[in-house]
What we know:
Elements: H1 10-21, H2 25-47, H3 49-57, H4 63-87, H5 89-92, H6 95-113, H7 116-119, H8 124-140, H9 142-166, H10 168-215, H11 217-222, H12 231-278, H13 284-325, E1 344-351, E2 361-368, E3 373-377, H14 384-391, E4 399-404, E5 407-408, H15 414-419, E6 421-424, H16 435-440, H17 448-457, H18 461-466, H19 484-498, E7 502-506, H20 514-527, E8 532-536, E9 548-553, E10 556-561, H21 563-569, H22 572-590
Parallel strand pairs: 3-8, 3-9, 6-7, 7-8
Antiparallel strand pairs: 1-2, 1-4, 4-5, 9-10
Helix pairs in contact: 1-2, 2-4, 2-9, 3-4, 3-13, 6-8, 8-10, 8-13, 9-10, 9-13, 10-12, 10-13, 12-13, 17-19, 19-20, 21-22
Amino acid sequence: MNSDKKIISIMESYKAGLVIAGDNRAEYKRSMFLFVASFTFQAVALLCFFPLLRSLFGTEPSVGGAVRWLGVMVALVAVELSCRWYGHDFDFSGTIVDVTHRLRLNLGEKLKSMPLEKMYRYKTGTLNYVFAVGVEYAVLSMGIVSSIIIQTVIPPAIIIAAAFLVEWRLAAAMLLLFCIAVPVQKWNRTGSSKEKAANAKALSIVESDVLEYVQGLPVLRSANQTGEKSAALQASISHLRKVQAKGILDKTVPTVMMSGIVEIGLVAVLTLGVLMITNGSLSLSAAAALLVIISRFSEPLSLFTSIAQVVDIVDAAFTRIKELLAIENLEVAAPAAMPEAFDIEFDHVFFAYDREEQFALKNVSFTIPAGTLTALVGPSGSGKTTITKMIMRYADPQSGTVKIGGIDLPHISQENLMKNISVVFQDVYLFDDTILNNIRMGNPDASDEQVKDAAKKAFCHAFIRRLPDGYDTQVGDIGGALSGGEKQRISIARAILKDAPIVMLDEPTAALDTESEVAVQKAIDTLVTDKTVIVIAHRLSTVAGAANILVVENGELVEQGNHTALMAGQGRYFSMWSAQQRVKEWNIIGG
């Protein structure tokens, strides 16, 4: 948390509103103009008390004059209410709902186009906060906040300026009161801004931890780490409690001080007015008018503290939205191209993850011919997954190039790139929808029959038909209603339906039992026919028949070749193979 966070000014708040309004800037500006006009007419209407009361209680009372001034006041109030009504048209007409919808769409487009490397820096709860609460705070409060800000500034300024024409000493006293309130308000804003930003951050952490807790509840129960024993969730909840407790304390003191300043200051101004009446320097009618105006003057001053709370809630939300939208997309270099061949080439690639000093890939070069099977092997953390991420343009390398069909990836749009790649992960993610719709994600235009045909090729049609609702069965959150092997086969059916020329497999059979592994392997055999296939392998026996095996260690490509050549070389691959064979022999003997 940055303790030197800049406090947003009224003008900055207005500019933030313009940014949020987007294509509806004209409507937002019109709304602000009408609010300014509304509170200007309000202040002028209050100033009419001077001639109105002078007409009634002056040396020469005039009922006709009083009626005329009363009519002027009524007309001004009518214009004020009309301006305020149409000023809120930005809210009531539904424009603000359109702005909210468009902002969420823009954020969604940003998630689609931003580098995945940048997106993974955000916890899920933080993104949930931005899309849900953040957008609500930043947009739906725009009109109300703007109205409060203008009401706090315009009427007091006009009233004080006009009061100098009536009695400069009382006007100077009111101006002094206003000036004293400003530094207290600044102090209040400083504490409020920090508190709102810290509270927003703590809330997003709690939201992320709650989501993680719910998703991992079966594991936590098995480890007896639920409730008070769930350390991460308890820590984030405790942190939120501390942030909220400190925030309440930090904003209570300046709020009480501001209330005291307003009350004491107004009493002092009224006392000065009474003294001036007694010594004859101020007429009774002017004093009565000032009494009415000063009582009205206290309202915007009392809003000083509440405005800080509201503006800083909006500011904290808008700051997170702005940070997300400011992330640079992966640009498509000119000229844009579409690969027609599907061989893959790495040429002296160096890559380090964001904020990491060590390279995850160091001078990696290899070629994968189209239509062949290539295996990536090596210890955990060696760089295998990073290589697959580079092929999907997770991020651009610091140096070197990655090409598909001879085209450097920056020249291929993300949409066209991913049209040509299917991925089957070890940890399958299914959406809480029907099996039919989960498979159809591979090709949204596919018919029901095409979906079922893909399911048959993935050897999951039989178990789907046994389910109570067949293809209309809801898979549950993250596919929780299905077994690991069933989820894996559905993900393969999805990839078969997509029918992309490049297929990447992240050891999809590693965590399965023997029966499920056999079924999944059959499904994979159907999927990879005539494709360029890259498979991450932990069990070397599953890729011994690969056309090419890339051995990766510490981010470097240390060996490559087929199984026979690598075994003959007796290098790193030979050592890994021998170690796995010894484990198998030990298991057989131990069994």
